[in-house]
């Protein structure tokens, strides 16, 4: 803020013009930098779409099979043939299993921490859940493969025995439990902390006066939760679930370690086999030639679009519920 | 419906802090009793002990007896949920359930307590909204969210919600402090009507309001900050405001306090 | 007690149990513990009796029994509403236990199996010349790789993320800010493998070779949105009065941001960056695609293949021998320790340097 005497057009009033001119230049530079970063971010997003699409188009031009319906992945073959049918199926099925298991349990744990746990237990518990959300997925992966898979044998044969009539729990092939079902369970365990952590935060934000309104009507603890906590937290839980779903859809390592992949579609979820986008990329990358890599990029593009759709849907749901969520606080 | 409240030797704590000390009083049925006193004197705490809402605050604890006709609210087998069902409450800031429609807000308490046929429910909702002088303003938009109403309307919605379950007693914790004068007047009129059916206890900071709406007035005070609040006296409102028997009450009412 | 009782229609609903009298029969306070003990005993009994091997089944049976017993007993002794309340409570407890067991087992397995080969030798040697299926070797090269890649990613993403957040909070209005906000959200959802494929496609087009830098760029893409989000939150916590006070003194806006806003929020920003680092440090997929992995020490992240901790775990897992599993667990323990320490320190900073605004 030096007082500059040169090139001051008007008589300087206590050195102000000088100060503002450096201020203005600084303001411009700073605004440029920060706006530039924002624009760079948009450029990155755009180029992700453009580059992936470009490489994918190269691969699709060579593909002799139908990209959407082919049950095979052989871009190195003659003629090259690859398709995403199995991967799409496996990705969606394993993620659905994960969501079905994880979301109710996560909401339960979040409620436990926010409304049921003894106070002295609640704070450390929340802390532990947050830490668990940070455990890298590769560690979930090796734990799942080396520890969880053997433990799930019993549960699998049990499901087969008692729920085999539902078709989906019928186990028609022998083999260890390296199935889409196991993958779903592992993904559920993996996304549990993040879904819990976000839901808990939303539940804690429920205005005290909303809960007291229910209490004063003579509501039991559960009724308080049903009347004021869950309605208030619903959009938060949805966005937390979508966050978890996004992770489950794109998870690579935890699936790659646990699943024994095969290019079949089977609704017998307990049978080993199947595949997901990310797992397939990890498994096929090492041996892939250039066309093979482009083919994997093409499948990655589908995964990208899938996660975009999930995110967009989450955003829409939240935006639509906003008019209701605003407590008049 | 309306019942008599008989409090004896009631002391309430927040953790180890004693908030109010050894309070005894009687609240007559079908009357309005106002609690006045400086901030922090425990009148809101005392009000919340009357429907066992005090104990939902962490560390909240109560000793003593509160008889509702012939039942002790703090008796051994008494279910706090049943108490709150019998002793309704209206809060300082209007707190309708934000995600529910006006209709559902009023019906919320009823739905907790049993299954109703649709037309029965509609009947009770209409009766309660009429009772809260709100029916004419909202009858065309019962399915709109309750949070879309004005502050005064929201507060009357909360009163409708509270009286829909036909409580014996209605507690009001500074129900007008967040409202403008016109809404305040509407609520005060409503209180005078409601006392035909309910025992009403109201906490207020506004002495004119206490003088206007209440039949009896209780003055609370505390010896010093950090000391527990105490009941100084309770008497006919007219006498409290004209010729109280304790000097402190007169000082407070005439503004010569502190 | 007059008008409602005479009124025939609503009476049936209004005079439910608990209306006439406030008190009712109560289960003793130790009842839930009792239910739990009975159901666990029954669960073990049924499990052992039916010859079910897996403890998971025993646990599931006990959990189901606990929920059912709590509900049935409460609804007979107390009433249906209380029973529903009890049902919710027991379900919530079961959820908690159901989730805690696998998560604790994960931590316990990693720690107990990781301790086996984790020592100073392991931390200071690479895998050079060690056949994968034999014991020996260490994680040094992977540690170096992780530190360099994560460091580079932070150097790239922290300034971009910070400036973007400043733009959104201090300047952001209009369509551009809206677009940026939206795409930050979208970017948060990008799977790590897609970020890897993006850089891969650039490498294929430009003919670049795998290196630590390529991995770092992919990690930076994953890190930027996390940094933007957390920084944004922190900047929003800085009270407007502070900004206005400074602006009223005639200080230009950029200096207000640099000298007042950012210093006030710096604790939270640091925490956000560290949490973002912790998150990307465990990413395997981009490294697999872009850095290629190596058994040797390569301290130059700009040229040649490198390893990283998560990639090392994957590699050792794939070898599939007892010795390599041991190394995988040990590396997993190192990685968890790294991530946890970052987390703990970050949260510590957040607590110490929280903006003192009397929130």
From TrEMBL, chain B:
SMART domains per UniProt: AAA
Keywords associated with the record: ATP-binding, Nucleotide-binding, Translocase, Transport
SUPFAM superfamilies the record matches: P-loop containing nucleoside triphosphate hydrolases
InterPro entries given in the database record: AAA+_ATPase, ABC_transporter-like_ATP-bd, ABC_transporter-like_CS, P-loop_NTPase, PstB-like
Claim: Translocase is one of the keywords in the record: yes
Coiled coil residues, start to end: none
Keyword DNA damage: no
Single annotated GO MF: ATP binding
Span of domain ABC transporter: 5-247
Signal peptide: none
Protein name: Phosphate ABC transporter ATP-binding protein PstB
UniProt source species: Streptomyces lavendulocolor
